[in-house]
Amino acid sequence: MDWLKERIIKEGVVLSDQVLKLDALLTHQVDPALIMDMGREFAARFKESGVTKVVTLESSGISVAFAAALELGVPMVFARRKKTLLADPDALCERVPSFTKGIVTDIMVSRQFIGEGDKLLFIDDIIANGDAARGLIKIIERAGAELIGLGVVIEKSFQAGARTLREQNIHVESLVTISSLEDGKITFS
Length: 189
Known about the structure:
Layout: H1 2-11, E1 13-14, E2 20-21, H2 23-27, H3 32-46, E3 53-57, H4 62-72, E4 76-79, E5 92-98, E6 103-109, E7 119-127, H5 131-143, E8 146-156, H6 161-167, E9 172-180, E10 187-188
């Protein structure tokens, strides 16, 4: 994943020892070729798992999840963060804190799109504390679907999110792992 590390160093902005801004790479602008490379990598890592759908959270995970779903030849479903007039009144919902936004939001997935018999690959852009991931995992469990694993573009190992999920026997695959953002410097594991 040297190519991804190079892009993170070139385009990432360290805002604090806890926060890495990736607007130019993942969260505001995306490079389609880079996104497809990430999707191919996740598809390769999970291709033998029998994935029937890829799931993600709105909105930064959508591009990478789409690329992985395309490579796997399965649909992609994303959890919405805002209710709309067209929202399914019977949707599966969870309240989750957002580390980067500093607020609590509702995430929701229509029961129409995930359910018993589904083998889901969850793709996310960054895992910090893992609150949003745990919320979507609860939705997956309530739907009766099976979580095959979690693919994360960037794992911040100095925060507990990925570690606590692994402790729950969830298969977590990270493309890159950052061990520190101290002194404004990105340090990879």
